[in-house]
Design goal:
The protein has about 300 residues and is α/β, with parallel strands linked by helices. Helix content is about 45%, strand content about 10%. Strands 2-1-3-6-4-5 form a six-stranded mixed β-sheet, sandwiched between helices. It is globular and about 60 Å long. The termini are far apart.
Length: about 300
């Protein structure tokens, strides 16, 4: 409990009223504020995802060596490195705080341009040169945002991956039929789905989840306090518009979030949450989603 309070305090979310060894109302409020700021479900509870992101939030650029490792290094220091390189026109990929191959390539290019040893490691010499040339207070645009707006980061060439323990996943797969290559993963955990989707350069991932008490449909696309998926936002909007034409389908809400399935997959991904609905309504939802997705695929092909 003491470590939880210390980590919250370290990032500006100190529980002011609770003793260090107590999880009280003030602590829960601070956790909710942290979850809200990081695009996580707002529960006020410290689950494994919230704790992992809280640990990542404690890293500051320069506190450790950064390099391509297995598993990938993660943290706010990685996100800051991505931002600073993107300011200079190097493409580190999505600003997600994960040190992957794109960030490694961008760092090597930066080092090579500066006459530094191009080993892909954020050494002290590389950090000093990077800090000298960039500023987080700068109004310079990021190359990642420019590429996204220009449409350079196109849909992948792999299959459409559908996942989640929800009746919508197989219904959407059936509705799409043979129009697209579909890979259905109804029982796989999010990590396994992300690995397969990334390895196969999936064009799109649709994740479905049934929440019994939910009265609306939630469409979540990738978004963090650093960046968001423009394609995901647009696709969610297109699906929401299509669903809104029906009088029997529940209301749709669109939210950018940093759920694990959205963060771990490198392509456009939507996470769809829905409540219990009659089979006919579920089939109607699936048909509308399939129609929009097929149209997007054929347009971008």
């Amino acid at each position: 409990m003491r470590e939880l309070h210390e980590r919250l305090a370290g990032i500006g979310h100190a529980p002011l009223l609770d003793p260090l060894d107590t999880f009280g109302v003030s602590t829960a409020v601070m956790i909710e504020a942290f979850q809200r700021s990081r695009g996580l479900p707002i529960t006020g509870e410290v689950d494994s995802t919230t704790w992992s992101i809280l640990v990542e939030a404690g890293w500051r650029l320069g506190q450790r060596l950064l390099y391509l490792a297995r598993p990938h290094l993660r943290g706010d220091d990685v996100a800051e490195l991505q931002i600073r390189l993107a300011q200079l026109g190097f493409n580190p990929g999505r600003i997600d705080g994960i040190f992957g191959s794109l960030l490694n390539n961008a760092l090597v290019d930066f080092q090579r341009n500066c006459g530094l040893p191009a080993d892909g490691t954020l050494t002290r010499a590389t950090l000093l040169e990077l800090l000298r040339m960039t500023s987080l207070a700068s109004d310079r645009h990021l190359v990642t945002e420019a590429r996204d707006q220009a449409g350079f980061d196109d849909l992948g060439t792999g299959p459409l991956v559908l996942c989640g323990q929800s009746p919508l996943a197989p219904l959407v797969a059936n509705a799409i039929g043979t129009a697209l290559e579909v890979h259905l993963m109804t029982d796989a955990p999010a990590d396994d789905v992300a690995v397969l989707a990334n390895d196969r350069s999936a064009a799109l991932v649709l994740s479905f989840q049934t929440l019994e008490q939910l009265k609306v449909i939630h469409l979540h696309y990738w978004a963090s306090y650093h960046s968001h998926s423009r394609r995901g936002d647009q696709l969610a909007g297109a699906i929401a518009t299509s669903l809104a034409r029906s009088r029997t389908i529940p209301r749709v809400e669109i939210t950018g979030m940093a759920l694990p399935i959205l963060r771990e997959t490198k392509m456009t991904t939507l996470h769809v949450e829905h409540g219990n609905s009659p089979d006919q309504v579920l089939r109607e939802i699936a048909d509308e989603i399939a129609t929009v997705v097929t149209r997007v695929f054929h347009r971008d092909a």
